[in-house]
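User: Structure please.
Assistant: Input sequence and predicted structure:
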Amino acid sequence: MSKDFFEHKAGTYEKDDNRVSNVENIANSIIASVSLDRSMHLMDFGSGTGLLLERIAPLVNKITAVDISKSMNAQLAKKQASIGCEVEILEIDLATANVSQKYDGVISSMTMHHVQDVAAMFLKFHSLLNDGGFIAISDLDSEDGSFHTEDTGVFHSGFERDSIAQAAKQAGFRDIQVVDASTVRKPHGEYSVFLLTAKK
């Protein structure tokens, strides 16, 4: 297993009000953009401490939380029983791991910039979905590299919306839409966040 870049911050991850409000905005954007129901089994890719999935949970049946970070998964496990749907935790690197389960949707918040091969990940998402399933992927718009002030395994300084939409299209997705989702406020600047939705 590779280095746990979040080991030192997992315990205080949810104490950052800007981070929490950003994920609330993303969750609200997802809820407004895709149809959710209580029969659905979703994957939360890069689930961290569960900030996103706990907001989506009351609207679905089950969420599989996928994260490479042992420390973040441990924080999620502490509140697993109090979340509004069944939660399964998979501690894997989705880029290399094989998952046999199929899902009705993949949600993700601020994780794609940690993925080296974005095109390959969209192909993986496509293969993991049931027909008619959706993706709802939120991340930073292209920025100057100042968003991350420490090394947490970052491969991209955000994304141009056209290029990430094209990656989804090339993976076979349809009905692709990219909308404004949130703004992250940091002491040294503001960073816009998009939500990309699409269907298989």
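Strands lie at 41-45, 62-66, 86-90, 103-109, 129-140, 174-186, 189-199.
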